[in-house]
Structure prediction request, 170 residues.
Amino acid sequence: MTTTSIPIRVATPDDAATLARLLRDFNSEFGAELDDRSTVEGRLSRLLARRDFFAILAGEPAYGFATVALRATAYGDNAVAALEDLYIQPDARNHGAGSALIEALGERARARGIMAAEVFVDEPDGDALRFYQRHGFVHRDPSTGDRAFYLHHDLDGDARLPHPERQFER
Ligand SMILES: CC(C)(COP(=O)(O)OP(=O)(O)OC[C@H]1O[C@@H](n2cnc3c(N)ncnc32)[C@H](O)[C@@H]1OP(=O)(O)O)[C@@H](O)C(=O)NCCC(=O)NCCS
Prediction:
């Protein structure tokens, strides 16, 4: 299978069930919890109707997806594309579908005047880091070259993170 033979399309609200199925596969594979099926489907159906959220599907029937939330910025009139999830079912990996989704994301975002995209990756996920770097993502501030960190504050939970001075040891 080559990248050009992979069906890629933007999801519509009618794809909510398909996207919910893939989102569940993704979260099950990594042992993460997800709300119940109808809640997730309903949420996706509403999100896919919005202008500040979109999803791209790979395969027919779909075996992969990218979800993107657009966030406003004070540094320009156009939004920044935040890639929330990127997933290809295990059997379909390493055939270019993930790359095709990233390319489609870039095309759709540029067509809407969006000139920057961002994604969060956990440090142990070296394969994903390499994958994103090959597609132009950098984990440095583009203007200063300083290392960039993703800081998360769980505002409604009681998650205990390491002491701040120990978080950035490496
Ligand atoms: C990352 C992912 C979307 C890539 O999709 P894909 O269709 O396999 O990608 P492509 O065929 O276009 O490119 C293959 C690259 O993905 C990497 N990859 C393969 N399996 C991977 C995995 N389980 N996790 C992360 N990257 C993986 C391969 O190492 C390869 O990179 P390399 O050539 O530098 O070794 C897919 O592997 C996946 O869904 N992984 C699990 C979910 C995940 O890690 N998502 C990103 C988290 S932010």
In short: The first helix runs from residue 16 to 29.
